[in-house]
Amino acid sequence: MTKQKQLATMKKICCPLTLAVLLISSGCFDNRQAPHRPLTARSMAEAAEKTADLERLVLAGQTLAALPPELAAMPKLAFLDLRGAQGLKSFSVLPELQALQRLDLAATGLEFVPDEVLKLAWLQHLYLAENTIASLPPEIAGLTSLTYLNLDNNKLSALPAELARLGSLRWLRLNSNLLDSLPPELNALSSLQRVYLRQNKLTAVPECLKALPLLEDICLSDNPISEIPDWLTGLPKLRQLDLDGCQVAKLPSTLDGWKSLQVLSLVRCPVPEDEKNRIRKALPKVHVAF
Description:
12-stranded parallel sheet
């Protein structure tokens, strides 16, 4: 009997709960592994009860003068959430957390990146948003396993060339800083797929993006950019381009290079009506917002 016939027969004879059990046991649903739920603690007291197997520790919003040394005895700790924690002055235990993959230090009052963070060569995700960090040290290059770096809402006016050595980086967030350019060396970030530069001081689309063929999402909104270079239309995987609030009045004459583009935002841009019509005609399958 086919699965379809089995299902029809069971619907006639079974209540909903029984039906669900039978469907699973009969193989009418493909076997799917449930998503892993990391063992989590939300206080050090709770963490002490799960030391050997703890994978995620959430101390967000708590007052801590220093990271507890007991963290070093947690061999499976992969995610440490300190977002909004107050009073943090010492991070000395961090280099001992050999399993750590994600570290959230957003909104913790940081004025610089702690030296201990820069030693975490195995770290994959780093959240430093909503602080007052004014510069990144060259030692940032040591975070060679990073795939995600969030520096939104800081005081960065420049980036070090050493950032280009983060060869695994796929997602870079730099929204709401003071950047007027990006180092040309960043053209070496060959794995980069998403870059967010909203609300900076950029007067031109950073030239370094030209050499990054895997780019899918670019956000340049609320920058004083008035001209879009021809090369931007040649990025083969670009899906979303956000120019909301820029001073762009005209796009390049040829737009057929945007083979993968799905969303283009030109909201609050001074685009004249004839140019809007040309863009719509050139990009009939793209959602264009004016």
